[in-house]
Design goal:
Shape: globular
Helix content: 25-40%
CATH superfamily of the largest domain: Dihydrodipicolinate Reductase, domain 2
CATH topology of the largest domain: Dihydrodipicolinate Reductase, domain 2
Distance between the termini: 38 Å
Order of helices and strands: EHHEHEHEHEHEHEHEEEEEEEHHHHE
Number of strands: 15
Largest sheet: 9 strands, mixed
Structural class: alpha/beta
Bound molecules: nicotinamide-adenine-dinucleotide
Length: 358
């Protein structure tokens, strides 16, 4: 396969970020991924809103625009599908894409329910296609530095509270279409927490509830204590409430005060702002470990996009398809994150410690 012909389903804000990297058009794609970015060509674009699909077709020089994702799935000249729709459609569209033998890049969260996670895992194994979840923090410079410097943390503390309160009317706050702010945005940090922990969860106990919204279905505040299978422990604080701005003493380029702290034997690292930036601290002798720097702001050095790694996501899928390299985030990672958040909700509702299956 010399080129990867891409179908895009969902032509909104986030698809622009990924589509903008096709044909190597983004200046901020990493040099080692550029040859793969150059081999991605956008062919078909689908959106329930025909004007959006057509605007994307013109912007990214697609062959056709459609309101019917089936046209993409049944197109023999499409190899891979980018799914950037509302959350309730992620699982059904993923399953259909894999059924038709298409590789998939799915935006987060991969799925909204545990049965959806099970079905996607099964389809991924059965189909043999590449299935990648676009968990952006894994591509961000600061998160990667913390992972490299503190590979086996014993404490992992994660924070995903936004600087504002999510409006009731937006689709992502809708219980059926989006699942609320914790599933929609907390999932970034939950995935970064597992990425840095390098371990599966064993149990979680959470308190929380609905503090800033009207609808009782969508929990908007979670305070969770986590135990991992390798014996490490940690916490996850998620929600909105307008608290995020308190968490950073400098302007964050991504305006996301989300962070994960990893601690191990006197070494600590903090990946902040979706993992764009990082800070380190040490109380061990320099002969044992010297932090790479005290405080870094890659966004100042490289620009926000290069620091975030967003323009490396689609090219990474392309590399995996062309060279059969492992993916940084698969269905297992998507499923772990959705299950963890749902179990936090269950614990907060029941007051019980929830254990994870093997
Ligand atoms: N990684 C990030 O930082 C980040 C940021 C924003 C959004 N996202 C994710 O990207 C995805 C899209 O979010 P967005 O902000 O671009 O939303 P959006 O509303 O701007 O775009 C979504 C598009 O999907 C279309 N759509 C919905 N259901 C569809 C269907 N069944 N078939 C075809 N089209 C359909 C809508 O008409 C809309 O144009 C979500 O999963 C969201 O969580 C990720």
């Amino acid at each position: 396969m010399s080129m990867i012909r891409l179908g895009v389903i969902g032509c909104g804000g986030m698809s622009k970020v990924h589509c903008g990297t096709a044909l190597g058009r983004s200046a901020t794609t990493s040099p080692e991924l550029r040859p793969y970015a150059e081999k991605v060509q956008i062919r078909g674009l689908a959106d329930v809103d025909p004007a959006r699909a057509e605007a994307h077709r013109l912007a990214y020089e697609g062959e056709y625009a459609t309101t019917d994702p089936e046209r993409i799935f049944n197109d023999p000249d499409i190899d891979a599908v980018l799914i950037t729709t509302w959350h309730d459609t992620h699982a059904p569209l993923s399953l259909r894409a894999m059924e038709c033998g298409k590789h998939v890049l799915i935006e987060k969260p991969m799925a909204m329910t545990e049965p959806e996670c099970d079905a996607i895992l099964e389809a991924e194994a059965r189909s043999g296609v590449k299935y990648m979840v676009a968990f952006r923090c894994r591509f961000a410079r600061g998160a990667r530095d913390v992972k490299r410097e503190i590979p086996r943390p014993d404490n992992i503390i994660a924070h995903a509270r936004t600087a504002g309160i999510w409006r009731e009317g937006i689709w992502a706050q809708d219980p059926l279409k989006g699942g609320g702010q914790i599933l929609s945005q907390g999932c970034h940090v939950v995935d970064m927490m597992f990425y840095l922990a390098g371990a599966e969860p064993e149990s979680v106990y959470a308190t929380g509830g609905v503090f800033h919204h009207q609808r009782p279905e969508v929990i908007d505040t979670i305070n969770a204590a986590v135990r991992y299978r390798n014996g490490s422990v940690g916490s996850f604080l998620g929600g909105d409430g307008g608290t995020g701005g308190l968490m950073a003493d400098y302007a964050l380029p991504c305006k996301c005060p989300f962070w994960v702290m990893a601690v191990a034997g006197g070494r600590s690292g903090l990946a902040i702002d979706h993992g764009h930036n990082a800070r380190f601290e040490s109380i061990v002798p320099e002969t044992e470990w010297k932090p790479p720097y005290a405080k870094c702001d890659y966004s100042e050095e490289l620009g926000q996009e290069a620091a975030s790694g967003l323009s490396d996501i689609l090219p990474t899928l392309a590399r995996s398809i062309l060279d059969d390299t492992p993916l940084p985030a698969t269905a297992a990672d998507g499923a772990r994150t959705t299950r963890f958040i749902l179990k936090c909700f269950e614990s907060a509702r029941t007051g019980k410690v929830i254990r994870f299956g093997q």
